[in-house]
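Hi F.,

I've been meaning to write this up properly since the lab meeting, where we talked about keeping a consistent format for the predictions we share between groups. The idea is simple: the sequence comes first, exactly as it goes in, then the structure tokens exactly as they come out, then a line or two of notes. No screenshots and no reformatting. I'm using this chain as the first example so we have something concrete to point to.
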Amino acid sequence: MENNVHIILPEKRKFIKKQHKSFSSTKTLGPFLFLILNGIFLFSFDLELRYFFTLLAILSIFTTTLCVLLPRDALGKLEKVVFKIIFENEQLSIETIKGSVNIPVKQIKFSKNAISMMGADFLVFQFVHDGKSYHIIIDYFEPNFLEEFETKFS
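Output, unedited:
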């Protein structure tokens, strides 16, 4: 592999894609599954029809809100993770779950931060381009990545 190309470790890439798919499925299928579960739960109380549908609507609104809002934050963080970095002619090319972006190196200002994601804290290089934030998780790349990256951008 060329020195100017850095790719996230394969097992970490699989893990992030699996987590992204899981949160997306929860966001999509969760409301429907909870609608069925709420209906079964309320049916077991043998309520009058008008009370049944009123409580079903209230419970469904609550569970749908949870199924949509809770994964949204996790999906947002996972979509910021950089999978591949290519340094070429004063250009930084990065690949995320959402696609690829080419950024002139002169427009990038990195900051080294710690972020919490998927129940763990990670040391990341963070930068913003066109109003979008990107995270390069140092532990997810090969061991010599940190030294090479700091020498190129310091």
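Notes:
The mean pLDDT is 90.
Strands lie at 5-7, 84-88, 91-96, 99-104, 111-117, 120-129, 132-137.

If this format works for you, I'll send the rest the same way.

G.
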